[in-house]
């Protein structure tokens, strides 16, 4: 005798999940035409939706959208890319030359003021009372892992 394990994973609305699981189990039982005592179903598990951590700043990379306290802010392409790079690589100080290479895509030094100006504009758009970007004088910039940001994925 052989044992067959079938795993089905679907993405559905949370409210639909229990009904959908029950319908799939019943359909499978009917389709394989096995007596109930020969079929073990572990289909009652519906994962709970994870609550998103409280985040003052949410970045939606696929939509290239940033929300501060649930309000969208308008960023230029470079401002968005700079913020995303810093938040994807938190807890590290990033030198201005590294940021120029990674965000601007230039190997030569445009001058550290370019990065400084973009960070200043970014801070202005994020607004007062919340600044996830820390300046490390004479070196560069960093975003702390606990700075209150969330990068959302689809």
Could you state the order of secondary-structure elements as H and E? HEEEHEHHEEE
Number of domains: 2
Spatial shape: elongated
Q: Give the helix tally.
A: 4
The portion of residues forming beta strands comes to 15-25%
Instruction: Report the average pLDDT across residues.
Output: 81
Largest sheet: 4 strands, mixed
Q: Can you tell me the CATH class of the largest domain?
A: Mainly Alpha
**How many strands in all?**
7
How much helix is in the residues?
25-40%
The CATH architecture category of the largest domain equals Orthogonal Bundle
SS content category: alpha+beta
The CATH superfamily of the largest domain is identified as Winged helix-like DNA-binding domain superfamily/Winged helix DNA-binding domain
Spatial gap, N to C terminus:
42 Å
The radius of gyration is: 24 Å
Provide the CATH topology of the largest domain: Arc Repressor Mutant, subunit A
Main sheet: strand order: 3-2-1-7
- The stretches of 5 or more residues where confidence is low (pLDDT under 50) are 43-52
Pfam families: Trans_reg_C
Protein name: Transcriptional regulatory protein glnR
InterPro entries: OmpR/PhoB-type_DNA-bd, Sig_transdc_resp-reg_C-effctor, WalR-like, WH-like_DNA-bd_sf
Organism: Kibdelosporangium persicum
């Amino acid at each position: 005798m052989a044992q067959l394990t079938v795993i089905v994973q679907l993405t559905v609305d949370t409210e639909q999940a229990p009904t959908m699981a029950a319908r799939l189990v019943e359909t499978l039982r009917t389709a394989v035409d096995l007596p109930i005592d020969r079929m073990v179903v572990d289909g009652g598990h519906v994962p709970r939706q994870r609550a998103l951590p409280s985040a003052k700043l949410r970045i939606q990379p696929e939509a290239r959208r940033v929300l501060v306290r649930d309000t969208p802010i308008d960023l230029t392409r470079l401002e968005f890319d700079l913020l995303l790079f810093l938040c994807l690589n938190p807890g590290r100080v990033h030198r201005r030359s590294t940021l120029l290479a990674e965000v601007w895509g230039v190997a030569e030094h445009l001058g550290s003021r370019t990065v400084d100006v973009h960070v200043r504009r970014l801070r202005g758009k994020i607004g007062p009372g919340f600044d996830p970007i820390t300046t490390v004088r004479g070196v560069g910039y960093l975003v702390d892992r606990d700075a209150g940001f969330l990068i959302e994925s689809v």
